[in-house]
Amino acid sequence: MAKLLEQALEAVRVLSPNEQDDIARVMLQLAGNEDTAPVEIAPDERKAIDKSKAAAARGEFASDEQVQAVWAHALPSR
Length: 78
Description:
This protein is mainly α. The chain is 65% helix and 0% strand.
Protein backbone atom coordinates (compact mmCIF):
# COMPACT_ATOMS: atom_id res chain seq x y z
CA MET A 1 0.00 0.00 0.00
CA ALA A 2 1.27 3.48 -0.83
CA LYS A 3 2.65 5.46 2.09
CA LEU A 4 0.30 8.38 1.47
CA LEU A 5 -2.74 6.09 1.54
CA GLU A 6 -1.52 4.56 4.81
CA GLN A 7 -1.22 8.08 6.29
CA ALA A 8 -4.73 8.92 5.11
CA LEU A 9 -6.16 5.78 6.69
CA GLU A 10 -4.43 6.56 9.99
CA ALA A 11 -5.96 10.05 9.94
CA VAL A 12 -9.43 8.62 9.25
CA ARG A 13 -9.23 6.10 12.10
CA VAL A 14 -9.66 8.88 14.70
CA LEU A 15 -12.87 10.19 13.10
CA SER A 16 -16.40 9.25 14.07
CA PRO A 17 -17.96 6.17 12.47
CA ASN A 18 -20.24 8.40 10.34
CA GLU A 19 -17.28 10.43 9.08
CA GLN A 20 -15.39 7.21 8.34
CA ASP A 21 -18.37 5.92 6.33
CA ASP A 22 -18.53 9.17 4.33
CA ILE A 23 -14.84 8.93 3.45
CA ALA A 24 -15.15 5.22 2.63
CA ARG A 25 -18.01 5.95 0.19
CA VAL A 26 -15.92 8.56 -1.61
CA MET A 27 -12.92 6.22 -1.76
CA LEU A 28 -15.05 3.43 -3.23
CA GLN A 29 -16.49 5.76 -5.85
CA LEU A 30 -13.02 7.03 -6.79
CA ALA A 31 -11.79 3.45 -7.06
CA GLY A 32 -14.56 2.69 -9.56
CA ASN A 33 -16.86 0.69 -7.29
CA GLU A 34 -20.32 1.72 -8.42
CA ASP A 35 -22.06 -0.70 -6.03
CA THR A 36 -22.27 1.85 -3.24
CA ALA A 37 -25.80 2.83 -2.30
CA PRO A 38 -26.76 6.49 -2.51
CA VAL A 39 -26.77 8.36 0.77
CA GLU A 40 -30.30 9.15 1.86
CA ILE A 41 -30.93 12.80 2.73
CA ALA A 42 -33.16 13.60 5.69
CA PRO A 43 -35.92 16.21 5.26
CA ASP A 44 -34.06 18.77 7.40
CA GLU A 45 -30.91 18.22 5.33
CA ARG A 46 -32.92 18.72 2.12
CA LYS A 47 -34.28 22.03 3.51
CA ALA A 48 -30.74 23.18 4.34
CA ILE A 49 -29.55 22.30 0.83
CA ASP A 50 -32.49 24.14 -0.75
CA LYS A 51 -31.80 27.18 1.45
CA SER A 52 -28.12 27.14 0.42
CA LYS A 53 -28.98 26.85 -3.28
CA ALA A 54 -31.38 29.79 -3.01
CA ALA A 55 -28.73 31.92 -1.28
CA ALA A 56 -26.20 31.02 -3.98
CA ALA A 57 -28.70 31.94 -6.69
CA ARG A 58 -29.00 35.37 -5.03
CA GLY A 59 -25.19 35.67 -5.02
CA GLU A 60 -24.92 35.41 -1.24
CA PHE A 61 -21.60 33.82 -0.39
CA ALA A 62 -19.43 33.77 2.72
CA SER A 63 -16.43 36.07 2.76
CA ASP A 64 -12.91 34.62 2.84
CA GLU A 65 -12.68 35.65 6.50
CA GLN A 66 -15.91 33.83 7.38
CA VAL A 67 -14.73 30.66 5.64
CA GLN A 68 -11.36 30.81 7.40
CA ALA A 69 -13.11 31.25 10.76
CA VAL A 70 -15.26 28.16 10.15
CA TRP A 71 -12.23 26.07 9.17
CA ALA A 72 -10.26 27.32 12.16
CA HIS A 73 -13.07 26.21 14.43
CA ALA A 74 -13.70 22.87 12.68
CA LEU A 75 -10.12 21.62 12.35
CA PRO A 76 -8.30 20.30 15.42
CA SER A 77 -5.26 22.23 16.54
CA ARG A 78 -1.94 20.61 15.82
